[in-house]
Amino acid sequence: MKRNIVLTTILTGLLLASYAVRAEPMTANNGLDKIKSNLDNSKSNKQEYERNLAIVSKNVNEVVKAKTTVQKQKETVSGEIVKNNDSLKKVLLQERDINQLIVQEKENQQAEAKQLEQLEQMILQVKQNQAKREAVIADYQSQLKMTGDEKKSWKDREGELRVQESKTIQSIRTLASEESTWLNKKKGYEGESKRWASESEKQQKIHDTYQGLATDGK
């Protein structure tokens, strides 16, 4: 009888220290039920936060993968822009060379026109040369038109690539913001998970202590 009174006093003191509840007489079994309820609640909270942490961690991984993919797309588009600019430079150089050739041919044409006035005996030959040079000029003009079309095509493509680049940059910014949001959530869930794991361990120790005391009191 005396042993049961001492056991009840110890259990009541432990409950007051751990939970600051209203002091009232109770048996070892009543205290054990209360501790078991707290332990079950702690375990349930721990499992819930661990599930949430797993979901958040998965979302973070998906965002990181998407960000990496978009970054690679941006690098590809940027590389295409460099290639596009190189091709455009080549076309511009070709255009310059053709214009120089046209100027040169026109100068030759003018020189030969003067020769016609001075050398009537060479009129036929000079006219033939004129005809040939006209054909050459026409060919160069045709080439110039082709390079002009090609230049326009490259410039149009540059505009499209710039739009794509802008979209990838915006996607990266959006994903970076989303990643930050999920990482913050992950940090919060990790903290809660650790807190409840600690609480669960604490409650388990109290439960084991009460269970031992209850067993001794029987």
Explain the overall architecture.
The protein has 218 residues and is mainly α. It has one domain: Helix Hairpins, CATH 1.10.287. The chain contains three helices and no strands. 10% of the residues are buried.
How large is the count of helical segments?
3
Q: Quick check: average pLDDT?
A: 82
| Domain unit count | 1
Instruction: Report the portion of residues in β strands.
Output: under 5%
What's the CATH topology label? Helix Hairpins
CATH C-level label: Mainly Alpha
Secondary-structure map with pairings?
Elements (H helix, E strand, L loop, with lengths): L1 H18 L8 H91 L4 H95 L1
In short:
With 218 residues, this protein is mainly α. It has three helices and no strands.
Based on the model shown, name its key terms:
Helix Hairpins; mainly alpha; rod-shaped; 218 residues
